[in-house]
């Protein structure tokens, strides 16, 4: 009896560890809002207009990933995984964004507060229906 329970616990722990490994390798889960121009100046690079990638795929870091400014210039792969309204996500679409700003000091207000990151209009529209205020994302640096 006691031994069986021990084995069961061991199996559960192993399953948890394995799913944790898969989770890390696939990135983290968070949320994203969007913001519109004006995008300048940014907290990371000021009024420098060459800071934006030519793709216009960029974002502002929310509290959780801002890292006291160390996130400036970091690149993340971002994918939309779900949203309040079904059908909002563009299926199987992953984009690469660059962090250029901080959510707390944006010039224009984000479509939703407290998200992991705030995507540029172009970035948001590439992975989701642009009428949505916020989406759930999977992201990986
Ligand atoms: C985007 O969402 C709006 C309403 O939320 C809907 O009317 C529109 O058809 C959607 N667009 C696409 C391309 O799915």
TrEMBL record:
Cited CDD domains? DPBB_EG45-like (cd22269)
What keywords are assigned to this protein?
Signal
The Expansin-like EG45 domain sits at: 30-141
InterPro entries noted in UniProt = Expansin/allergen_DPBB_dom, RlpA-like_DPBB, RlpA-like_sf
Stretch forming the signal peptide? 1-27
Question: What start-end ranges are recorded for coiled-coil regions in this protein?
Answer: none
User: Does the keyword Methyltransferase belong to this entry?
Assistant: no
Q: Which domain of life is it from?
A: Eukaryota
Return the PANTHER family for the record.
EG45-LIKE DOMAIN CONTAINING PROTEIN (PTHR47480), EG45-LIKE DOMAIN CONTAINING PROTEIN 1 (PTHR47480:SF1)
- What is the protein's given name? Expansin-like EG45 domain-containing protein
Native organism: Morus notabilis
